[in-house]
Write a structure and sequence with these properties.
Strand order of the largest sheet of chain B: 2-1-5-4-3
GO molecular function (chain B): clathrin adaptor activity
Largest sheet of chain A: 5 strands, antiparallel
Strand content of chain B: 15-25%
Subcellular location (chain B): Cytoplasmic vesicle membrane; Golgi apparatus; Membrane, Clathrin-coated pit
Structural class of chain A: alpha+beta
Number of helices of chain A: 42
Strand content of chain A: 5-15%
Helix content of chain A: 40-55%
Structural class of chain B: alpha+beta
Order of helices and strands of chain B: EEHEEEHHHEEH
Oligomer: heterodimer
Radius of gyration of chain A: 46 Å
Strand order of the largest sheet of chain A: 3-4-5-8-7
Distance between the termini of chain B: 35 Å
Helix content of chain B: 40-55%
Largest interface: A-B, 83 and 60 residues
Radius of gyration of chain B: 17 Å
Shape of chain A: elongated
Largest sheet of chain B: 5 strands, antiparallel
Family (chain B): Belongs to the adaptor complexes small subunit family.
Distance between the termini of chain A: 118 Å
InterPro entries (chain B): AP1_sigma (IPR044733), AP_complex_ssu (IPR016635), AP_mu_sigma_su (IPR022775), Clathrin_sm-chain_CS (IPR000804), Longin-like_dom_sf (IPR011012)
GO biological process, one term (chain B): intracellular protein transport
Number of helices of chain B: 5
């Protein structure tokens, strides 16, 4: 019945409004809202709003419209819907200027919603506010204050601060509370205006009205935060505030301000916050408030949110003001109770606060560890996130084992976004607090397994670094990682990456039998893992790259499964991903190289941040080497390890031998070395080697202080170096052999044999050991007697040894000893291993050891030398760069008389053709009258005879190129800017650079000035091989 | 200090907005859009706080309306929940068991109540009675000065 009546009234109302509208009344607000709500689509709604906006705009033209108020109200609704309403700003100001309260009320509401601090009408607003602030009606002043609090710009603050201050001093509580908050807003906006309010604030705190107290507390808080001086000034207010708080706690039930049994929690919170600011770093103030804080903390009802809000604020205050420790424990306990609360909001707040306070009082927070850990299982994701952060903050040496267990359970079910962060944090925590390395490793393997693909790359590299740095851990790590990888082959790519790196590096440790009770892992087991993972499409590219590298390394560590390894390395040779393809191709080539691979694929040095820099420094700073020489002289034992780090230092053990008289001419070298050493053998055969580019590095030349060991044999990972300890003295010399084992296995029954030419006799002393551990060495001394004076010493060497019971043999030859000056005379370019070979070998070895493992570096040095020694001796036309052609004749320039006669008709025709073209200033295809002068140094064009293309000369220059057939771009001379340039870089610093050409190039000064064309001609060798068909 | 307060429906329609700090219009719209989608996508078992830019956002749902306040970092989230609740109580007392439609059709009244309760982003009056008394007095003035015609009422309508 009542419903029917309501509907009837509504109907009448609607008709009334329709009739009204036909008479010129604008649409009512509620009709507009109804229409908008009735709109079914956005387009309909827009149409309604646009129509009404147009109407409102129209009516604004009429200044005296009595409907302005209604129109603004509608406009505000339109504004809330998100449509433009800025055209109403001026109208709002006009409304505000009206006398009617309704107009002012709506006008100020519109001003608050439509204007902001940047509006241009601010001057108008300021004037209106100024008028209304002094209005006798308190509600009008109230509206003005409210507007000022919402939209006051800095200028308004300055203009109106005094008016606000006057209102604060008035005796009207309704306006006082508003004015206090306006003052707060003004102080926040323009802190200088603080002084205006300081005097009147104190009296405000004596008021009884809670609204005024709220405003006053807010204002004082803001002022204290802004200025330390004011903070000190208000410190004496602490007792007042404590009294207010005490009254609130003690007063009985006051219905007006009561919230579920707690009297005015809003005011309590405000006062507690002010106390926090006043008591910070102030012992006296802290003492004054300790009691009341304890009272609040113990007496507040915690059943409802309100009580907890107060407790929360109390805890913050207690933690901030450095109150007594008992109080602080009370505070942390409150947070601990919060954690057990059923309300998720309170748990969240507690975790957040604990996170903030954990650095202040870790011990106190530790006691709630279990509760925190339980929060990891909370259904709310934000709580879990905080709990995780707090868990990591709480971790330390004593609790890591326990905490880790819980965190790992959490990690297992955690969302993807947590896994990555959790994995990184776990690494940091375990690295810092792990009881031992095994535990660290096991935990991290579990983390990698659980976090799966979300583990960030840094964790992978940190893991690798950790395993690399702890040699005692490696054997354990490789087995554990192998088992982990086997179990979880595809789901955890980062785990696989770490596992593959470790297996690759320490594969030999993996297949060594460790304990009797664990089943031994065979080579084929390991390869099976790779066979399962590498071809899979689920494996990421990064993992595949790791796998291919690991396989390449395993090829030197495993003995029975090489064919399977090679097949696996090969499968990605045509992979679409370039990096993987390159690895596959390169490693396949390296595996096939033979003995070289042992050097190239040996174990990585310990990965630390500075290791590379330290190793590289010797090459750049020779001065340091010389200073280190002094040390070496004192310690002139066979500390070859140390010496090999010195790169070029050579062997200082010969310093002080009897070669003084023979080498007195090396003053230049000694000068460079500061004269610290007076016996040096400058034997660098710079000029003799075609590829001894390193020999011409100035740095190296100058810092060659003494005998270098020469490499007699370098095969299958075993290197034998021979060095002269004592040069010829009474036709006797003493040499030292050092054998290095770079294979991962240890060598047994090592035997070194040496034979010399008939002019010499040799005696071998027993070796220091016949067993060489992996990465170890052994030494043996030899004495040589020269029977025919002046003979050149040459030596053939042979080694035999056993690896895992398998017999190995290698041969080598030494034709030149850097320690014997005689050797310089002849035998320089014999086939087999000449000095440059030795140098190359040594360099190569250095490269791998220093781990600049770009295969180019390694292979080019040695294999080029091999290539030279073989290729230069084969068939073909050979020339050295300084060759002078014997033939004086210039080809094609002197025809015979018969040829002249026969060519006459052609000459006539050609002459006409030539005339025509020359007259037209066009270029002839072949200009016989101005022929190109050929030079006697061309090689055969690259790309084949007749193809045109590019021709090189035997000195290394590029000449004669005609790239586009028919278009003559025929250069007779060497093209200067077409060159290969060799750059030797060490640690990104270029130490040597030269153009690889000995051709005569004359350049105008300034052109290509940065290029060093001074390659020594006689170091260039050229061999022309023509194919049989030609 | 509260930076802004938004009221929006479960459908994501804005019902009330109060800005205590000046933002450009474009940014206001962006904040509304982002917060509304973010809050509506939260599950009921999640806590009532979220971090948005450098502010803490406290929200609470009453029936079909979400009340959402953005406060500063060192403000008390729990008391902000009480502020929201107090505002709802005020609306409830004023309209007599308030519903979303009341706020839609009388949004200006909702603003007036809010302005009597909060000022400059801080609580102005902690007594419900005082707030409602002030509102009633002002409504009375408004009523007295509005002439009522038969076909044309001069009020807001």
């Amino acid at each position: 019945m009542a419903n029917a009546v309501e509907i009837a009234i509504e109907k009448i109302d609607e008709y009334k409004s329709r009739i009204g509208r036909t008479l010129g009344t604008p649409m009512r607000l509620r009709d507009l809202i109804r229409q908008v709500r009735a709109a079914r689509t956005m387009a309909e709604e827009r149409a309604v709003v646009d129509r009404e906006s147009a109407n409102i705009r129209e009516s604004f033209r009429d200044d005296d419209s009595p409907w302005k108020c209604r129109n603004i109200a509608k406009l505000l609704y339109i504004h809330m819907l998100g449509y433009p309403a800025h055209f109403g700003q001026m109208e709002c100001m006009k409304l505000v200027a009206m006398t009617r309260f309704t107009d002012k009320r709506i006008g100020y509401l519109g001003a608050m919603l439509l204007l902001d601090e940047r509006s241009e009408v601010h001057l108008l607003v300021t004037n209106s506010l100024k008028n209304d602030l002094t209005c006798s009606t308190q509600f009008v002043s109230g509206l003005a204050l409210c507007t000022l609090g919402s939209i006051c710009s800095a200028e308004m603050c300055r203009d109106l601060a005094n008016e606000v201050e006057k209102i604060i001093k008035q005796n009207n509580a309704y306006l006082k509370k508003k004015a206090a908050l306006c003052a707060f807003r003004i102080v926040r906006k323009v802190p200088e205006l603080m002084e205006v309010f300081i005097s009147c604030t104190r009296s405000l705190l004596g008021e009884k009205n809670h609204g005024v107290l709220m405003g006053a507390t807010t204002l004082v808080t803001e002022m204290c935060e802004k200025s330390p001086d004011v903070l000190n000034h208000f410190k004496k207010l602490v007792p007042n505030l404590v009294r207010i708080l005490k009254n609130l706690l003690m007063s009985g039930y006051s219905p007006e301000h009561d919230v579920t049994g707690i009297s005015d929690p809003f005011l309590q919170v405000k006062i507690l916050r002010l106390l926090r600011i006043l008591g910070k770093d102030d012992v006296r103030a802290t003492e004054e408030m300790n009691d009341i804080l304890a009272q609040v903390a113990t007496n507040t009802e915690t059943a409802k949110n309100v009580g907890n809000a107060i407790l929360y604020e109390t805890v913050l205050t207690i933690m901030e003001i450095k109150s007594e420790s008992g109080l602080r424990i009370l505070a942390v306990n409150i947070l601990g109770r919060f954690l057990l609360n059923t309300d998720k909001n309170i748990r969240y707040v507690a975790l957040n606060t604990l996170l903030k306070t954990v650095h202040i009082d870790n011990q106190a927070v530790q006691r709630h560890r279990n509760v925190v850990v339980d929060c990891l299982k909370d259904p709310d994701i934000s709580i879990r996130k905080r709990a995780m952060e707090l868990c990591f903050a709480l971790m330390n040496k004593t609790n890591i084992a326990l905490m880790t267990k819980e965190v790992l359970i959490f990690l297992e079910t955690a969302d993807a976004e947590f896994k990555s962060e959790c994995a990184s944090k776990m690494y940091i925590a375990t690295e810092r607090y792990s009881p031992n390395h095994e535990w660290h490793l096991d935990t991290m393997i579990t983390v990698l397994r659980l976090a799966g693909k979300y583990v960030p790359d840094e964790v992978v590299s940190c893991m690798i670094q950790m395993i690399s740095a702890n040699s005692e851990l490696q054997a354990y790590a490789v087995v554990q990682l192998y088992h982990a990888a086997k179990k979880d082959a595809i789901n955890a790519q980062p785990l696989l990456q770490v596992a593959f790196w470790t297996i690759g590096e320490f594969g030999d440790l993996l297949i060594q039998p460790t304990d009797a009770d664990t089943t031994a892992i065979s080579e084929s087991d390991v390869i099976e893992l790779f066979e399962a993972v590498l071809p899979s499409t689920l494996t990421s590219l990064m993992t595949k790259c790791y796998a291919v590298t690991a396989l390449a390394k395993l090829s030197t560590r495993f003995s029975h499964t090489n064919s399977r390894i090679e097949a696996l390395v090969r499968i990605n040779q045509a992979h679409i991903h370039l990096e993987l393809q390159q690895r596959s191709v390169e490693f396949n080539a390296i595996i096939g190289v033979g003995d070289l691979k042992y050097g190239l694929l040996e174990r990585m040095p310990i990965i630390t941040h500075n290791s590379l820099n330290a190793a590289a420094s010797s090459m750049i700073e020779p001065e340091e080497i010389t200073s280190q020489q002094d040390v070496l002289i004192e310690d002139a034992s066979s500390s070859l390890d140390l010496l090999s780090n010195l790169d070029l230092g050579g062997n200082s053990t010969s310093i002080g031998n009897g070669n003084n008289d023979l080498f007195s001419s090396n003053n230049a070298v000694m000068d460079i070395l500061g004269g610290a050493l007076n016996t040096q053998n400058n034997v660098a055969p710079v000029s003799s080697d075609p590829f001894d580019i390193f020999g011409s590095v100035p740095v190296q030349q100058s810092s060659k202080p003494s005998n270098r060991p020469v490499i007699a044999i370098n095969a299958k990972g075993v290197e034998v170096q021979v060095e002269v300890v004592d040069g010829w003295k009474n036709e006797k010399a003493r040499l030292k052999m050092t054998a290095y084992n770079y294979t991962p296995q240890s060598i047994s029954s090592f035997n070194f044999l040496a034979a010399v030419t008939k002019a010499f006799e040799i005696q071998l002393e027993p070796a220091t050991s016949t067993n060489i551990p992996a990465d170890g060495n052994t030494t043996q001394f030899m004495n040589i007697t020269r029977k025919v004076p002046g003979s050149v010493a040459r030596m053939r060497t042979k080694i035999s040894y056993q690896i895992n019971g398998e017999e190995h043999n290698s041969n080598g030859e030494v034709n030149e000893f850097p320690g014997f000056r005689d050797a310089q005379k002849g035998m320089r370019r014999r086939n087999s291993e000449s000095t440059n070979e030795k140098k190359g070998g040594k360099k190569n070895n250095k490269m791998t050891r220093r781990r600049a493992v770009s295969p180019e570096n390694g292979t080019s040095m040695t294999s080029n030398n091999c290539w030279m020694s073989n290729e230069m001796n084969g068939y073909g036309w050979k020339a050295r760069g300084d060759r002078k052609p014997k033939e004086k004749r210039v080809p094609f320039n002197r025809p015979t008389p018969k040829q002249v006669y026969e060519a006459l008709p052609f000459v006539r025709r050609y002459f006409m053709y030539w005339m025509k073209y020359t007259f037209d200033k066009e270029k002839l295809f072949i200009n016989t009258f101005q022929p190109l002068k050929h030079k006697p140094f061309y090689g055969v064009p690259c790309g084949g005879i007749g193809c045109g293309a590019i021709g090189r000369d035997f000195r290394g220059g590029f000449c004669k190129f005609s790239l586009r057939p028919g278009l003559v771009e025929h250069k007779v001379n060497v093209v200067a800017a077409d060159q290969f340039i060799l750059s030797v870089r060490d640690n990104n610093k270029c130490v040597y650079q030269k153009v690889l050409s000995a051709a005569d190039i004359c350049l105008p000064s300034g052109q290509l000035s940065a290029w060093d064309f001074s390659f020594p001609k006689k170091n260039v060798y050229y061999r022309l091989v023509l194919k049989i068909q030609w | 200090m509260m930076q802004y307060m938004l009221l929006f429906s479960r459908q994501g329609k804005l019902r009330l907005q109060k800005w205590y700090t000046a933002y450009p219009d474009k940014q206001k719209k962006k904040i509304c859009r982002e917060l509304i989608t973010q809050i509506l996508s939260r599950k009921p078992k999640m806590c009532a706080f979220l971090e948005y830019k450098d502010l803490k956002v406290v929200y609470k749902r009453y029936a079909s309306l979400y009340f959402c306040c953005a406060i500063e970092q060192n403000d008390n989230e729990l008391i902000t929940l009480e502020v929201i609740h107090r505002y709802v109580e005020l609306l409830d007392k004023y309209f007599g068991s308030v519903c979303e439609l009341d706020i839609i059709f009388n949004f200006e009244k909702a603003y007036f109540i809010l302005d009597e309760f909060l000022l400059a982003g801080e609580i102005q009056e902690t007594s419900k009675k005082q707030v409602l008394k002030a509102i009633a007095a002002q409504d009375l003035i408004q009523e007295e000065e509005t002439p009522q015609g038969f076909f044309e009422d001069h009020g807001l309508g």
